[in-house]
Amino acid sequence: MTIVRPPYLLDFAGAILDEPFDFNEETWESWEMDRMEKFEDRWPEVRKVMSELEWFGIYLSDMHLGNIAFE
After folding, report:
1. In the chain, which end has fewer C-beta atoms inside a 10 angstrom radius, N or C?
2. Mean pLDDT of the 3-20 span
């Protein structure tokens, strides 16, 4: 294990590959509202990071303040 400094994205335990999560729309809306509250003004940046990973087939469900940090 290595010690890292921001910026970083860690913890892919909640990631799946190739296919998005099969959550219903209500679950996704609740999840997104929760993340918007947690990340506040940084949410658009977090969402962009997630979108970039999704382009490569990496889907994350466990985004929280402990596994992503900005400079």
Report:
1. N
2. 83
Task: Work out the average pLDDT over 30-36.
Answer: 92
Strands 15-17 and 8-9: unpaired
Exposure of 47 in the CB half-sphere (CA atoms within 13 A):
14
Domain limits, the chain = 8-69
Query: What value, to the nearest 5°, has the Cα angle with vertex 53 and ends 23 and 22?
Result: 10
CA dist., res. 62 & res. 13, Å (int) = 8
Residue with tokens 């294990």: 1
Three-state secondary structure call for residue 39: helix
pLDDT at 29 over 80: yes
Enter the tokens of residue 5.
Answer: 């400094």
